[in-house]
Amino acid sequence: MKKILVPTDFSEQADYALGVAPQLAQKRFEKLAQKDFLKNIKVHEHVEFHEIFRGIVDVCKKQNIDLILMG
User: Fold this and answer.
1) CA distance 60 to 65
2) How far is CA 57 from CA 42, 47, 50, 62, 69, in A?
3) Which of 10, 17, 52, 54 would disulfide-bridge 71, Cβ 3.0–4.6 Å?
4) Is residue 25 within a helix (H) or strand (E), and if so which, with residue range?
5) Where are the domains of the chain?
6) Exposed/middle/buried for residue 9 (C-beta within 10 Å: 0-12, 13-18, 19+)
């Protein structure tokens, strides 16, 4: 799992999903982040406004998303 998409509508439930995403990635990321060649790794924020389903599908295809986590 390399890329996690966390769509949000800024609701309380979406905030919970956003809180879970780092927990899913944290253990794997910590091991990877210790490698010299990943010292400057960045997390990318991506904002788009679409019809929710179509927008999620489009972003997943464009960004090669491995997991969608929604609240």
Assistant:
1) 5
2) 23, 14, 10, 9, 13
3) 17
4) helix 12-33
5) 4-68
6) exposed
